[in-house]
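Figure 2 data, in text form.
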Amino acid sequence: MCAPIIAAGITAVASIGMGIYSANSAASMAGAQMAQAAQQQQAQVAIQNRQAMQSQRIAQQQMNMQRTQQLQSQQLQMQQQFQQQRFSMQQNAASMKQAADLQFQQQQLSVQQQQEALQFQQDQNAAARNLQIQQMNAQLADKYTQQREAVKAERIQLMKKHEVDKRIYQDSKETAEKQKDLNAEEANRVYLAEQTKLEGKRREAAFEAQSILAKSIGAKGQILASGRTGQSVGILANDVERQAGIQKAQQTAMLESDRVAAIIGMDNAMQANKVADQQAEAAIGFDPTMPYLPSMPQVPTFVGFEIPK
């Protein structure tokens, strides 16, 4: 009893499923048809729009062509009018220019005649003035030449006097130098004489010292050879040495005196040499300096000639 019920249920469910599938298929087909119809309608609208735009473009082009033709016609008329006006103005300008040129030539001829007359008068005045200026410049040139020659002569005279003074100074200076050389030679001769004299005194003192020594030795030998004894022998020997010492001291004092005298003689010669040199230098004249030479006169400013224009 249960099996037939289950089979009947399955059959019913299968029938319902088939119905739903059929409904869905029908709906899909209907949607596809609607979409295709919509696309066909949009395509027709697009075609209509393009046709309308093309028609509008053609109409716009025709209008533009008509407008262009009108503008060209208007421009042609305006150009013709402008050329006519320009031709008329050119004729008027040519007539006015011809009249102005004629008037200008007449005025220029009149001005040229006046300028030539004025130039002739100016040339005559300039020639007279130039002659006067030439005479003035000749006087200035002569005066400048005289002043220049006078200054040159004065400068030559000053330079000659300077050369003479310089030669005199040089001669006096050379004379003084020669005199100073002679003074030095004289002083050297005095130095040599004093030194030679002092050297002789020294040799004499040396010989005298040897003589005193020899005499002292001889006296001591005589005392010792006399055979005396006691204190008297020592006293006599000491007396001999004392006498020899006194003689040596006297000889040394005399030699020192001679040395001092020689030094004084050489100092006197030195002082005399200095005095003689000072006298020789005092005889030298002054060393002349370069004289102040007067300046040459300045070149005069000549008056310029008037150049006719």
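Caption note: The mean pLDDT is 78.
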